[in-house]
Amino acid sequence: MFVVQIYLPLELPDGALIPPGVFERTKAELTDRFGGVTSFLQSPAEGAWKPSGGEPIHDRIAIFEVMVADVDTAWWRHYREALEAELQQQRILVRLFQVTVL
């Protein structure tokens, strides 16, 4: 099995909050396609990244997690790019790791 995690920002680049409907739609899309999703929305995680030569940038994020048996990397790349465009992000982190279900 594999776990795919999507790290979505809680704010747009201008500081405006992401509309809650975006998160609800994302949960519905992932549930419809993969049969389930876990979303971590109530206690937002905090992240930081430092662009080359710049000051650190801090983000508040929500995490969506899906377990899959097979990974369609082209589909995930397209999904990430669509979210980046919609949420006005240079990059949204989507990561994959293999897990053993006990």
- Portion in helices: 25-40%
Number of strands: 4
Give the DSSP E fraction (strand runs of 2 or more residues).
35-45%
General shape:
globular
> What would the average pLDDT be, to the nearest integer?
90
Q: Any idea what the radius of gyration is? A: 14 Å
Largest sheet: 4 strands, antiparallel
The total of helices stands at 2
How far apart are the termini? 11 Å
The chain-level structural class is: alpha+beta
Low-confidence stretches: none
Order of strands, main sheet, comes to: 2-3-1-4
* Assembly state of the chains shown: single chain
SSE ordering: EHEEHE
What's the SSE blueprint?
Elements: E1 2-9, H1 20-34, E2 38-49, E3 57-68, H2 73-86, E4 93-98
Antiparallel strand pairs: 1-3, 1-4, 2-3
